[in-house]
Structure to design on (470 residues):
């Protein structure tokens, strides 16, 4: 008499997805799923932290963000398994990104980057791609892009828009290069010093087609840390290869605009990129106010070659503490000075907040700046002050039912109406309240703040800044 052997099942856990969700699939899990799929090993993506994990033989957990909470079943099981061999395997930048000791950080990063390639279970199976004989080669492993398919289908049935999950559905994803030399203190690459080739495009380019012969994933997005800082012997052929696919592509972490100013190939880079079939906005980064001269020099080069909309990530909120008002003011001041430069060159901004921004009691000012800046429809048409005040009139019109003759008031008109008790029986909306609290906190800088809060793209854009010198 023979019994039925229980099937060996591997669980894959995207911790970021379980803790509020993200718009991006986890690339490490996609590649791990690809390896398991190559060997017909049963695997499932866990969709809820309340799921019963007892049926799984191995559980791989990955998280990208340091603020992501570990799933409840992971914390509970770790306690149960003390002193025993755990069925959990875990990794990702979210587990070590906040490590402040450089020596320990380097150790954690080296171990994490090689963890799956050194995994005892995976190394029992031959590598069916390139790179090594046994186990997974992360640079060469083709992702299994359908990993999130059941999850996405469930969410769409629940009423979520399909477009929300476009990154899960329509993109081939990978790194062509890894590394950076900038050593920004807030970045997981802060101790890196070079850029090296990583995956071949063919290792993650999905060519699957639907019943009508159309590519299921017609776009490419790339997670490269600093693609343009690689050698011309690297970026030239890679850009050519990307162009030859005929597919629109985008570098999701942004490109380093400063390279255009620093490199002898700046003009060539700008011209080549501008001729590419780029997907969406060109995205660069203007993270440090101290880089303004390089950014402006680079913008002059870029704008001479490119007419398409260009966006810049604007990093902020880093190392903000509850008691450091001076740092808060300086940080907000630098945000608006960077925005001013971008407006002068007709470019969009996109606020990227470090988690430290939460630390100050006036942290909501960052939320409101992001709500304005990160939505081009508002950024292009109105100043920050106008956006915040328009929130107030929207509230009065749609909640209180008041007919508004003047949807936007200047700060001076607002003060007059405030002193005449117009707002006595009305709630002041959160965006406007945040601005008023900030102005009150920094009374000595009020005139400067009001000037900045009234920067408008249409007033500042100046095409003569990028006309080539004759």
């Amino acid at each position: 008499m023979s019994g039925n052997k229980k099937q060996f099942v591997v669980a894959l856990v995207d911790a970021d997805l379980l803790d509020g969700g993200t718009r991006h699939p986890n690339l490490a899990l996609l590649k791990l799923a690809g390896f398991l799929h190559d060997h017909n090993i049963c695997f499932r993506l866990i969709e809820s932290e309340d799921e019963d994990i007892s049926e799984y033989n191995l559980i791989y957990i990955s998280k990208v963000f340091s603020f992501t909470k570990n799933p409840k079943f992971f914390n509970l099981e770790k306690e149960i398994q003390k002193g025993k061999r755990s069925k959990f395997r875990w990794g990702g930048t979210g587990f070590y990104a906040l490590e402040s000791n450089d020596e320990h950080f380097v150790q954690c990063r080296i171990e994490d980057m090689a963890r799956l390639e050194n995994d005892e279970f995976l190394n029992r199976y031959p590598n069916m791609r390139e790179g090594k004989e046994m186990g997974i080669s992360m640079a060469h492993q083709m992702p299994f892009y359908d990993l999130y398919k059941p999850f996405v289908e469930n969410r769409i049935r629940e009423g979520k828009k399909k477009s929300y999950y476009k990154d899960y559905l329509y993109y081939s994803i990978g790194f062509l290069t890894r590394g950076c030399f900038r050593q920004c203190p807030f970045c997981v690459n802060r101790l890196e010093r070079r850029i090296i080739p990583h995956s071949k495009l063919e290792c993650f380019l999905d060519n699957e087609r639907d019943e009508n012969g159309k590519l299921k994933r017609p776009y490419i997005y790339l997670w490269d840390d600093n693609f343009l800082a690689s050698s011309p012997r690297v970026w030239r052929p890679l850009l050519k290869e990307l162009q030859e696919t005929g597919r629109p592509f985008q570098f999701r972490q942004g490109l380093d605009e400063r390279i255009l100013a620093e490199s002898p190939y700046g003009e060539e880079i700008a011209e080549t990129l501008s001729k590419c079939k780029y997907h969406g906005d060109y995205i660069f980064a203007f993270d440090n106010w101290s880089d303004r001269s390089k950014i402006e020099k680079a913008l002059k080069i870029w704008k001479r070659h490119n007419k398409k909309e260009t966006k810049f990530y604007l990093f902020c909120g880093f190392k903000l503490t509850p008691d450091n008002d001076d740092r808060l003011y300086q940080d907000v001041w630098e945000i608006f000075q960077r925005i001013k430069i971008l407006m002068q060159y007709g470019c969009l901004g996109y606020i990227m907040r470090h988690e430290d921004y939460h630390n100050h009691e006036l942290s909501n000012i960052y939320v409101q700046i992001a709500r304005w800046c990160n939505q081009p429809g508002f950024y292009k048409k109105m100043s920050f002050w106008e956006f915040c005040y328009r929130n107030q009139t929207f509230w009065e019109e749609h909640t209180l039912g008041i007919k508004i003759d003047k949807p936007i008031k200047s700060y001076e008109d607002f003060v007059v109406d405030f002193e005449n008790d117009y707002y006595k029986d009305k709630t002041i909306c959160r965006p406007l309240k945040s601005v008023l609290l900030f102005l009150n906190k920094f009374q000595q800088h009020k005139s400067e703040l009001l000037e900045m809060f009234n920067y408008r793209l249409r007033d500042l854009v100046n095409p003569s800044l990028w006309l080539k010198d004759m």
Remarks:
- The first strand starts at residue 9 and ends at 14.
